[in-house]
Amino acid sequence: MIRPNRDSVVALLLLLLTGVFYHQSYEIRVASYATLPAASWPRAILLMLGVLSLVYLVQSLRGWVTPAELDLLRESDPTGGGPAGAMRRYLNPLICFGLFFLFLLTLPYLGMLVGGILFVFLSLSALGPLNWRAAGLHLAIAVVSVAGIWAIFTYALRVFLPAGEWFS
Amino acid sequence: MRESVAEALLLLVNFQTLGLMTVGVLAGLIAGAIPGFTIAMAVVLTLPFTFGLDPVPGLATMLGVYVGGLSGGLISGVLIGIPGTPSSVATTFDGFPLARRGEPGYALGLGLWASVLGGLLSAVLLVTVAPAMARVGLEFRSWDYFALTMFALTITASLSGANLLKGLIAGALGLLVATMGEDSINGIARFTFGNDDLRQGFAFLPVLVGLFAFSQLMSDIRDRDQACRPMMSLKDNARVRVPHGRALREIARQWGNLLRSTLIGAFTGALPAAGSSISNVLAYDQAKKASRTPEQFGTGIPAGIIAPEASNNATAGGALIMMMSLGIPGDVITAVMLGALSIHNVVPSPTFIRDQPGIAYAIFGAFFLAHLILLAVQSVALRGFLGIVRLPIYMLASVILLYCAIGTFSLNNVGFDLWTLFIFGVVGYGMRLLGFPLAPMILGVVLGDVAEKNLSRALSLSDDLTLFLSRPFSLFFVLLSVYSLVFPWYQQHRGRERWTDFFMPSLSLALSLPLLMMDGPVRRVVGVGLILLGLGLLSRTLWRPRAMA
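^ Those are the sequences you sent over. The predicted structure of the assembly is below.
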């Protein structure tokens, strides 16, 4: 049995996305005063996207692999292939995305200054070398860079940045 | 006129005004270099400081921020691959690769001098052709604007390079993103999925910064060893310096590219609501199409830096043309400047230049001087910026991500923008990994709303769809759109397939038709010229013996 390649999976996901949005387009209210109904332009775009995704799917069908070929691909991958291999390959970006997500979740409580310093410090520590000297350097960089830009925005430009519930 | 120029010089050339302009240019450079901060925001933040100043120093300061901001985007675009402002998106395509090859100074020098020369040329245009250019822009109606945006969207085809299908999909996704939230025409919510935050839709800047910044930075830090190395190893001190002579010689060699890009920028700036975020991409696309080696675009060639940087600074001149000659803002920034002028009881209108020549010429002069100040300030500031890229990548990535968040948040002071930044960061990185180009998606997000608004307005005025073909400007852009879509195939098969020999002649003949339909002798003369050109190319094609492949 042959298996779909990455392009086919992406094409199917795009078609699914198109379907979901097209279904949602029927939730758009019809206004009697509108010359061009609010749903018309999105549906035209979805039609175009659907056609392009179908063409993409058809083109991708040529690239389907057999399980044997898939095993060969995995063996040649130094990170080991599969989900575990993907985690190893993309560990740094996953860490960054995860820390940024946590930064956004804690922003209402910690504020931009404290939350920002924590984010930068943790990112530097996770991505860089792990020793006490590096940790000290990372802390200094986090404090100076974040506090500096925070001060410029707050005092020089008078732009409001969230202070956080715990520190306001 | 001599008295007006003398009056303008007196108002401009003094310690206070020049000092304020220098501070403004430097502030604009810094603001432009921070992804997400935007030039418009920098100019808005400058506005309160100008309340206590006279009109000329106040306007001159704001112009300094504007000009500085346009070039500030160049610095971050070249050094870290993230466009600091939407007006430098296309600069990153070749600026960053050239810097990565160990020539950041050369890339910056090309951008700097292209910016300065493009801006100075547009300053000349501003003074000499302001009334005529403004009249052309005023002739545009909704049909013409819609056709123009469709033409701009077809550029996604040529921006996608080898991945034409993926580029078109990315463009469609961008258009879809632009439809989310409240419909700007009827105020009806679309694709909110029951979420109140989504009613406001996705702001353009968090989308831009998320797509570009996250994806670029995540690519840079993916490999642990690579992440601990400097972004660029600048062993040779000579590379740290900007080779001004070499950059100028290259720009002189590409004077056609510079001139064409300046004209594109000035014309785009003159069109209300079209700005440097469009003109830099348009100019890049045209430079690529006019090149004998289009496949080299994107690898770090000078032409790919000269075109967008010349056009984005020239756009400022074009936007000022509309403001000065008709009192209509060409973009957001000139709208802020109009506000500043009205605070000082100065109201630009069609008679502004005639009634207040001193102030008018002072504004022309300030725009000119700002570019000269930019030359001096940026050369000094560049040394500091170049030092930044000696730091390990992981340090830059972490700090820049937070700066992007702060810059994005300060735009609207809305937390949802940060979530937008995050979401599109994930989307952008995913697109990079899957081989989807990002620029077409950005173009779709920028132009989607503009296209829909103008389509709706056009249909409100008349349901006759043939107007899209019978109106000269609309027909002009429809024809350009068709040829723009076909152009990638033309480039691919040029010299090998017979039909490619007829591409240029047919384009020339086709474009002559709308020009002949327009009013005015100049346009008709240009139309006749295009017919003669087309016939000449056609006869050469038909009579030239075909070389065997």
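The radius of gyration of chain A is 24 Å. Chain A touches chain B through 59 residues (CB under 8 Å).

Shout if you want it in another format.
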